Amino acid sequence: MPVTQSAPVLGWLRALMIVGVIASSSIIRAFAQDTPKPQTQTQSGAPPASQSPSTLSQLPPVALYNLLQKRSIVFPDIAASNERLSPGRKFELFVDNSISVHTITWAMLGSSVGQADDSPTGFGQGWDAYADRFGSSMARSASSEFFGTFILASALHEDPRFYPEVHPGFFHAVKYSIKRVFVTRNDEGRDVANVQGLVAPAMAEGLANVYWPDRNRTVGDTLLRYGLDIATRAGGNMLREYWPVFYGKINHAPRPTAKLN
Fold it and tell me: Among positive and negative, which fits the CA dihedral 71, 77, 78, 79?
């Protein structure tokens, strides 16, 4: 039966993912601490010599920075500064995203909905089936983060972080959240096609067919999962857009003065 065949594979994948994430996190954090951080400004406030005033003026004039004083454990990919990320820090961000509060919560909720709806049908019902759904959701998220946040973002010099706006109006936030699914920033701060954000979920869903139930490995099922990944990414961007506002209110922090990019 497909269910009994997939359960051992899922068990090994979950164990491998957890061990790999914990080990990688420790290594990369140590590496990141030894990596010198690039400085975008001198102590006098002037831009570095490598960035001329004409280059800075070409950047999108949108106030986006210093919305959070430190990295969020709920959404680690919300930009807390405009520092350029090295490949090592992109790997660290991949690890943080894979085990973030948002990722774990979404996997739990999604698995509960799938359990109630018996989707995918190949997992069946019961606690073992729920564990399979939860494990596969975490594995798919980790795969997507690995391919996108680390591999593709490093190779294409893209910035995998989300830059929320300072005073988001609702309808503008909807438009901006959808736009950032297809448009991202490169390491120089310019808008480019979001290749890593669009290709990585497809790669992750293709890999998921290795441990997905046999009856649910069709091309149609894979494309459906990919479409849901893109749609939920837009919804997740809305949460990221308003998270700094919510975070400031629950911590009774005044809204920070925005800096222009």
Answer: positive
Kind and range of the H or E run holding 43: none
Tell me which range, 55-64, 122-131, 148-157, is most confidently predicted by mean pLDDT: 148-157
pTM of the model: 0.69
Cα-based torsion angle of the residue sequence 85, 86, 92, 97 in order, rounded to the nearest 10 degrees: 40
Place of tokens 């490093």: 154
Give the containing element (helix H, strand E) for 191: strand 191-193
- Indicate the residue type of 181: V
Backbone angles phi, psi at 61, to 5 degrees: -80, 60
Q: Where are the alpha helices (DSSP H) in 118-218?
A: 127-145, 153-156, 170-182, 195-208
Show the CA angle centred on residue 136, arms to residues 74 and 159, nearest 5°: 45
pLDDT of residue 71: 73
Rounded Cα gap, residues 6 and 17, in angstroms: 16
Identity of the amino acid at 227: G
Task: Please work out, in degrees rounded to the nearest 5, the angle formed at the alpha carbon of residue 132 by the alpha carbons of 128 and 138.
Answer: 140
162 pairs with which residues across the strands? 78
Residues near 86 by beta carbon (within 8 Å), at least 6 away in sequence: 32, 35
Q: Which residues contact 214 (CB under 8 A, 6 or more apart)?
A: 2, 5, 6, 122
pLDDT at position 248, please? Answer: 66
Q: What is d(CA 77, CA 97) in angstroms, rounded to the nearest whole number?
A: 7
* Alpha carbons 192 and 101: distance in angstroms, whole number: 28
Find the farthest-apart pair of alpha carbons in the chain and give their distance in angstroms, rounded.
68
Q: Considering only 2-6, 185-189, 192-196, 231-235, which range has the smallest mean pLDDT?
A: 2-6
